Amino acid sequence: MTKDNLPLKTKLAFGIGSTGEAATNWVFSGLVFFYYNQIIGLPGTLTGIGVFIAMMFDAISDPLVGSISDRFKSKYGRRHPFMFFAPIPTSIALICIFYPPAAMSTFGLFTWFLFSTIFLRLSITMFTVPHLALGAELSDDYIERSKVMSFNNIFNYGGWVIMHIFVWIIIFPNYGGDKVGQLVRESIYLLSLLRSYW
Description:
By secondary structure, the protein is mainly α.
């Protein structure tokens, strides 16, 4: 930690880290209910139950990952190894959510969705918790910490806006021919793949 003013590049680098998280959360929050209910046919109630259970799991995994990160020791520090590793399982989980096996029963689809969502939430936690903890450790000064988190929030909101524009203005209107773009399964596939490379 330091009491000196942090350089702009440090604040920018920290803030940019939140754009991937924002993109992931947008894809999940903005598309998963629509995709599973309207395209795949899983009842909305079951989709909601799956998300609820995954969020309850989040309540356990967040402090657990934080505790593990606090005690972790490596030449890269306590936080960076988690942040470097997390995008890999996050991408796998996101693809699993939007690529369920064909011809599954309702229960099978629900089970697939539930465990894929839990996997996604855990993967996001592995990045978000150490990332936010790192922000608090960059400086001893309250004002500098506030500035760091302001950069984080700006880039986080920016990620949501970029995804919103990209999906609803570029992808869906130009995908699917005479169909509404968001009703075309392949357009959702494309988005999940693009997010995986973010």
